Every structure is written in structure tokens, then in C-alpha cells.
Amino acid sequence: MLRAAPVLILDEPTTGLDSVAARQVVQPLRRLMTGRTTIMITHDLSLAPTADRRPPTASSSSTTAA
């Protein structure tokens, strides 16, 4: 990992971890993300509050199929 990388891409950073281990990983990740553009790909909605912006998902879409 580059020490001063301006952009981080995190792909499923907590996959396979139990909730205790995931919390232990998330705290250092938040420090690492500070001051950097971060793209986080995850299915874990508990990580969503760490995001400044979140693209809409199919389940949050206001449109429905006819």
C-alpha cells in the first residue's frame, strides 16, 4: 500500500468477519480514510454511515417496475 495515496479503493473490507472483528477493522479504516477520496464497495450497510455520499441502490430506488 502506498503511504500517502490520495485515493483508497476498499472492496468488501469486512467480508467474512464477525461483528467484533469488523468493528476492530473499521476504526483504523476510518483513520486511514481521513483526508482521502475513498471508494468503498460493500454489501454491509452498517458501513454506510462512514460515507459522505452513497449512490442509490435498487432497493432505495423510488421507481418501481410496472
Describe the structure.
By secondary structure, this protein is an alpha+beta fold. The protein has a domain of 44 residues. Helix content is 23%, strand content 15%. The protein is built from one helix and two strands. Strands 1-2 form a two-stranded parallel sheet. Strand 1, helix 1 and strand 2 form a beta-alpha-beta unit. The longest helix has 15 residues. It is globular and about 35 Å long. It starts with 6 loop residues before the first strand and ends in a 25-residue tail after the last strand. The C terminus is likely disordered.
Helices and strands in order:
Elements (H helix, E strand, L loop, with lengths): L6 E5 L7 H15 L3 E5 L25
Parallel strand pairs: 1-2
Main features:
2 strands; single chain; alpha+beta; 66 residues; two-stranded parallel ribbon; P-loop_NTPase; ABC-type oligopeptide transporter activity
What amount of the residues lies in strands?
Answer: 15-25%
Instruction: Tell the overall outline.
Output: globular
Order of helices and strands: EHE
Mean pLDDT equals 80
Radius of gyration: 14 Å
Number of E-type strands? 2
| Helical proportion, percent range | 10-25%
Question: How are the strands ordered across the major sheet?
Answer: 1-2
Q: State the distance separating the first and last CA atoms.
A: 47 Å
Low-confidence blocks of residues: 62-66
How would you characterize the largest beta sheet?
Answer: 2 strands, parallel
Number of helices: 1
Structural class: alpha+beta
